[in-house]
Structures are given as C-alpha cells and as structure tokens.
Design goal:
With 108 residues, the protein is mostly helical. Helices cover 19% and strands 0% of the residues.
C-alpha cells in the first residue's frame, strides 16, 4: 500500500476518531484468593497448598533458612564452593603474576 502522501485527495469531511467514553460505576476487581486457591490465569505451576517445614526442628511454620533454633549453632548445611568463581580467581592471579614477571607492556 502506498504512503499517505500518495493517497487520493477527497472533498469529503475527514473521519474523526471515536471519543473515549468511560463507563459509569466502580471498576471490577478480582477478589482475594484463599491461601490454597490457584489464581484464575495462572501460567506457572506453583506449590499451592503444600506446607513447608523446617529440616532442623521439624516445625511447619518456617523453613531451615529462617529457623531460630539454630541461631548460635554452626550451620549444618554445607555450602559447595563456586568452582567457576575459583577458576576465574586462579586465572586472574596467574595473569597478574605473569604481567609482574614480564615487566613489559601487555596488549590484549
């Protein structure tokens, strides 16, 4: 379709846009859902209705990350070191050592 500059000119009254008319009344809102109720347009599958419990004290109202019974004890959860970060750190250290040993200009 050609651009608006190439359209035929008419002597008729140009078409106006429709006026926006706000409907009377209060806008509709969705009601508050129960804790175990799935939303109407849910896309992701959530763990609705599943009660989480703490692995340390086995109480249902919290999980092990927020357990207050374990405040003063050493954490029983073992954290695996991030291997990618360690490899990057080792590479950076070796890179810096090589630069110091050469003492010359280095081009990337």
């Amino acid at each position: 379709m050609p651009g608006s500059k190439e359209w035929r000119k008419t002597t008729l009254v140009p078409i106006k846009l429709l006026m926006y008319h706000k409907q009377p009344g209060r806008p509709k809102t969705s009601r508050k859902k129960e804790a175990d109720e799935i939303p109407k347009r849910a896309i992701k599958l959530r763990r609705y209705g599943i009660v989480t419990s703490c692995n340390i004290c086995e109480v249902d109202d919290h999980n092990s990350a927020t357990c207050r019974n374990n405040e003063h004890e050493v954490s029983k959860i073992k954290v695996k070191p991030n291997l990618k970060f360690q490899l990057k750190l080792n590479v950076n250290l070796q890179f810096n050592l090589n630069l110091k040993l050469k003492g010359r200009q280095f081009y990337l």
